[in-house]
Amino acid sequence: MSFTTVLLIVIGICLLLIWYANIYNKFQTFIIRINEAEANIDSVLRKRFDLLNKAITIIKSNLDVNDDVLPMITKLKSKKLSNFELDRKLYDAINEFTMYKEEHKELLKNDDFVKIDINLNESEAEIVALRKYYNDIITDYNEVARTFPSNLVRKISKYKIRPYFDGKNMEDDDTNDFKL
User: Fold this and answer.
1) 3-state secondary structure string, 100-169?
2) What is the CATH superfamily name and number for domain 3-157?
């Protein structure tokens, strides 16, 4: 082999490695943004969970209820759930909370209960904004992950297509990807 041939092979390998590193770094940037968005969502979900836990105490003390108040929250204490599942469960629990509020108007005389209600409404706006941010990142990530040639790097690095926060399943059809 001549020096020129070896040089061309080395240059080709270097260009291939630079291309791979560039695409790999793009995935890493997306993963960092996704993790950040998930952490922010987790924080708001924990805040909502804590607010509902406080509401249980207030409801029990103001209504003299012996029954299980907001049983869904009590059950969630011992479960390890994903943010997707926790969000759905908290949404159901907030609906229960709203029913208590509507059925027992005397709860609205309690300042702590009213503060919890206000904070739950504010957290709803936060979670909607965070879901949108998360889903925007996922859209960009999945677009890169499914398009050629970056899907080659995804498959080599074993990255997965990510689902949207609203529960849409992006893993349903991987048949359009280039097969290795």
Assistant:
1) HHHHCHHHHHCHHHHHHHHHHHHHHHHHHHHHHHHHHHHHHHHHHHHCCCHHHHHHHHCCCCCCCCCCCC
2) LemA-like domain (1.20.1440.20)
Measured between alpha carbons, how far apart are the two ends of the chain, in Å?
A: 30
* Tokens at 128, concatenated: 């909607």
The region, left, alpha or beta by phi > 0 then psi within -120 to 50, assigned to residue 67 is beta
The tens digit of pLDDT for each residue in 58-104 reads 888 887 766 677 777 767 766 778 888 888 889 888 998 898 889 88
Domain ranges of the chain: 3-157
Contacts of 26 (CB under 8 A, 6+ apart): 144, 150
Q: CA 61, CA 64: separation in Å to the nearest integer?
A: 6
